[in-house]
Amino acid sequence: MTSRTLTVGGGRPLRGQVRVPGDKSISHRALLLASRAEGTSVVRGLSDGDDVARTATAMKAVGADLAGQLGSGETMLVHGAADRLREPEQVLDVGNSGTAMRLLAGWLAGFPWLCVLEGDASVNRRPMDRVIEPLSVMGARVEGRGGRLPPLVVQGGALHGIDYTPPMASAQVKSAVLLAGLCAEGATVVREPLVTRTHTEEMLAACGAAIEVVRQGPGQVVTVRSSQRLESFQLDVPGDPSAGAYWVVAGCVVPGSEVVVEGLYVGPGRAGFLDVLARMGADLSVEHRDATTADIVARHGCLRGTDIGADEVPGLVDEIPVLAVAAALAEGTTTVRGAGELRVKESDRLATVTSELAALGAQVEATTDGLMISGVRSLSGGTVRSHGDHRVALAMAVAGMAAGGTTRSEGWEAVDTSYPNFELQLEALV
Ligand code: S3P
Predict the structure, then answer these.
(1) How far is Cα 235 from Cα 22, in angstroms, rounded to an integer?
(2) What is the pLDDT of residues 68-92, one digit of tens each?
(3) Containing H/E element for 219?
């Protein structure tokens, strides 16, 4: 992949409306479930990033029939059914997508096939023991490099249910175990001390799977039973809040801005960044279209620092880089605690957010499991690097929009995994 640079002229107000890509988490799951469901599912507005394209390619490799396109305004027809699927002849390459690797590991574990999952250099550094362990206890044979790193070899087959409490708050781990549980004998139970994004359990219920969710304080217990036949579905994928957060924060921090972000998913486990920005004093309007989708209007104004606690992290885990940009431009101090998971994302985000924001004049310190940011109210343009991480690249582009002078964002190609059209949309808004 050739390296690209985005050049952002700081201080230009953003005004207008923007429609972000379809939610990435929902898109992966829609393809995985539709491929197993009986009949034809119709899915509109799937994410057009490379991550979701990798899951689509993997589903074709196991025999699902996909017709149509990824992207906003596009429709994909998925002709599924478990009995048309077959062992893939090729290695399944997830590119940069840790979500695809972990969800696929769980999905594949239910079939009596030998599959190999590989990814890029960033995925190859990400811990997979978090799915290897529960899937092995369920009866699959899953091997990784050194027992914990990709590539993974999955020999699926006769599984039995387990009662599992993931050691970290992770929707990917929960989802991998639940997807394997669809093919397991007996009940599979996942106990979450803190609820993470709920797409898998909700979408499984919508497909008629035998699934039950019991809320317990800030946590929940999800039980799934063998459900060999899933029903096909029709779905309009809502806008990705993790992508929308860049524009919402940009609207808040670039003087003179007013940005309308259309049709964002704001359901359970995804809208925590809006609560944080509201606490920071942001000028936001949230206009609901229905229970889980809203248009967000963000206007520039002064922000103040806040504390983001461990219990909030699962609901905004991917938005911390861009919230750190808001915090750097706020008055007062912001702390983030209980976010050690950021160390094992596409980059070590506690380290990369710290180094790149510092390059623009911010005062940021990484702690073992969080960030301490002293707001400086203004940043100066400079050169930042993505470290191969789309969320770092996009957050730093927002910092550059608010900074004085010009910011060069190197390694910009990283954004292709989730948001290939960001630069075009930025041009339309300034
Ligand atoms: C995701 C869950 C989160 C998130 C990732 C997408 C998902 O990861 O960071 O971008 O779709 O389930 P973890 O489950 O590892 O926290």
Answers:
(1) 11
(2) 999 999 999 999 988 899 999 999 9
(3) strand 219-225
Pocket lined around ligand 1, Cβ cut-off 6 Å: 25, 99, 170-172, 175, 197, 317-318, 341
Mapped onto helix, strand or coil, the DSSP state of residue 88 is coil
Q: What is the pLDDT of residues 182-223, one digit of tens each?
A: 999 999 999 999 999 999 999 999 999 999 999 999 999 999
Q: pLDDT tens digits for 293-314?
A: 999 999 999 999 999 999 999 9
Q: What is the pLDDT of residue 411?
A: 98
Token pair belonging to 327: 């915090």
| CATH number for domain 24-232, candidates 3.65.10.10, 3.40.50.20, 3.10.310.10, 3.30.300.20 | 3.65.10.10
Q: Are 169 and 341 in contact (CB under 8 A)?
A: yes
Give ∠ CA 318-298-267 in degrees, rounded to 5: 45
Spans of all domains in the chain: 5-21+239-429, 24-232
The Å distance, Cα 28 to ligand 1 centre, comes to: 11
Q: What architecture is the 5-21+239-429 domain classified under in CATH? A: Alpha-beta prism (3.65)
Q: Quote the ligand 1 centre to 264 CA distance (angstroms).
A: 17
Domains 5-21+239-429 and 24-232 belong to one CATH topology: yes
Can you give the pTM of this predicted structure? 0.98
